[in-house]
């Protein structure tokens, strides 16, 4: 139970710590209000879901996007994730 609380706290802190200055994750429903400008992929460079989320945000920023929607994720030895980027 303690591990669950720590994990939940880490997710919340991670969301707030880089959300203000980087591309933000949104839902598919929210994405309908924005213009899609491309896709980004982590290509298995990270070993944790939070690192993958941060990498997707960074890549979306580089592409000129303000928002992203995760469309695929896979976790084996490394986390692979793909997101659509929106303005």
UniProtKB/TrEMBL annotation:
<feature type="signal peptide">
    <location>
        <begin position="1"/>
        <end position="22"/>
    </location>
</feature>
<dbReference type="InterPro" id="IPR036275">
    <property type="entry name" value="YdgH-like_sf"/>
</dbReference>
<dbReference type="InterPro" id="IPR051096">
    <property type="entry name" value="BhsA/McbA_stress_biofilm_assoc"/>
</dbReference>
<dbReference type="InterPro" id="IPR025543">
    <property type="entry name" value="Dodecin-like"/>
</dbReference>
<dbReference type="InterPro" id="IPR010854">
    <property type="entry name" value="YdgH/BhsA/McbA-like_dom"/>
</dbReference>
<protein>
    <submittedName>
        <fullName>DUF1471 domain-containing protein</fullName>
    </submittedName>
</protein>
<keyword id="KW-0732">Signal</keyword>
<dbReference type="Pfam" id="PF07338">
    <property type="entry name" value="YdgH_BhsA-like"/>
</dbReference>
<feature type="domain" description="YdgH/BhsA/McbA-like">
    <location>
        <begin position="34"/>
        <end position="87"/>
    </location>
</feature>
């Amino acid at each position: 139970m303690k591990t669950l609380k720590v994990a939940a706290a880490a997710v919340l802190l991670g969301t707030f710590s880089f959300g203000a200055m980087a591309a933000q994750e949104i839902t598919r429903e929210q994405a309908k209000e924005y213009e899609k400008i491309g896709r980004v992929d982590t290509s298995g460079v990270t070993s944790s879901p939070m690192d993958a989320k941060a990498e997707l945000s960074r890549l979306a920023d580089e592409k000129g996007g303000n928002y992203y929607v995760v469309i695929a994720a896979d976790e084996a030895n490394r986390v692979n994730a793909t997101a659509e980027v929106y303005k």
